[in-house]
Amino acid sequence: MTTVTSPLAGRAIGLAAVPDPVFSGAMVGPGTAIDPLREPSEAVSPVDGIVVSLHPHAFVVVDSEGHGVLTHLGIDTVQLNGEGFELLVNKGDTVTRGQGIVRWDPVAVEAAGKSPVCPVVALEATADSLSDVIEDGDVKVGDTLFGWQ
C-alpha cells in the first residue's frame, strides 16, 4: 500500500470543493485537496519515487509500486507561465517523501486572481482503492492524506 502524505500545510477540503470541474468531478483521479497556508512555502513530494512530470504549477511523482501522485499548485495556475514558482528538482530525479519539489507563494497566486487550492490526486486510481481520505481539518506537511491499495 502507498501512503500519500501532504505536500503542503493548510486545510484539507476534499476534491469536491475544488473550484474546477475536472478536479471536483474526480476526472483526473480520486484524492483530496489542500487550501494552503498563505505564506511562501515549498511543496514537497507526497511519496518516495521518481519525478515523471514537472511543471512550475504541478508535478507527478511515481512510487515503486507504479502509483503516480499529482500535486497541482493552485487552479488555472498554468496561465501564470511559471511566474512565482521555482523548481527545486529536475524531471527524472529520484526524490524522497518530504523533499522540496517547487517553491511557491499562494499569496501571489491569489493576487493574480487564481485559486491557490491544491488538488493531490491518485492518477489512474479508482475511488475504492483509496482509504482514509482526509477531506477536512488542518494538515501539516507530511501528514497522511490517504492510503492507496
Topology:
Blueprint: E1 2-5, E2 10-12, H1 21-24, E3 31-36, E4 41-44, E5 49-55, E6 58-62, E7 68-72, E8 85-87, E9 94-95, E10 100-104, H2 106-111, E11 118-122, E12 130-131, E13 138-139, E14 144-148
Antiparallel strand pairs: 1-14, 2-3, 2-13, 3-11, 4-10, 5-6, 5-9, 6-7, 7-11, 8-10, 12-14
Organism: Streptomyces poriferorum
Protein name: PTS glucose transporter subunit IIA
Domain PTS EIIA type-1: 20-124
Task: Explain the overall architecture.
By secondary structure, this protein is mainly beta. The protein has a single domain (2-139), classed as Glucose Permease (Domain IIA). The protein contains two helices and 14 strands; from the N terminus they run E-E-H-E-E-E-E-E-E-E-E-H-E-E-E-E. The strands form three sheets. The chain has an eight-stranded antiparallel beta sheet with strand order 9-5-6-7-11-3-2-13, with no helix packed on it. Strands 1-14-12 form a three-stranded antiparallel beta sheet, with no helix packed on it. It is globular and about 40 Å long. The relative contact order is 0.32. It holds the Pfam family PTS_EIIA_1. This is PTS glucose transporter subunit IIA. It comes from Streptomyces poriferorum.
Quickly describe the structure.
This protein is mainly beta. It has helices spanning 21-24, 106-111; strands spanning 2-5, 10-12, 31-36, 41-44, 49-55, 58-62, 68-72, 85-87, 94-95, 100-104, 118-122, 130-131, 138-139, 144-148.
